[in-house]
Amino acid sequence: MTRAAGVVGLATLASRIGGFVRDVVIAYLFGAGPAADAFFVAFRIPNLLRRLFAEGTLTIAFIPVFTELLKKKGREEAFLLARSTFSLLSLALLAVTIAGVIFAPEVVRLIAPGFTPGEDTFALAVEMTRWCLPYIFFISLVALAAGVLNSLGHFFAPAAAPALLNLTIIATALVLSPRVDPPVLSLAMGVVIGGIAQLLMQLPYLKAKGVPFKPAWDLKNPALRRMLRLMIPAIFGAAVYQVAVLMDTILASFLPSGTVSYLYYADRLIQFPLGIFAIAVSTAILPSLSRQAADGDKKALLSTMGYGLRLILFITVPAMVGLLVLARPLVVLLFMRGEFTLEMAGETAGAVMGLGAGLWAIAGVRAVVQSFYALKDIRTPVAVAALCLVIKLAFSLALMGPLKQTGLALATSASGVANLLLLLWLLRKRVGLLGGRRLFKSGLGTCAAAAVMGLLVALVAYGPDWGDPNGALWRWARPMAALGVGTASYFAAAKLMRLAELGELWQVFRSRRA
Question: Beta-strand (E) ranges in 425-509?
Answer without folding.
Answer: none
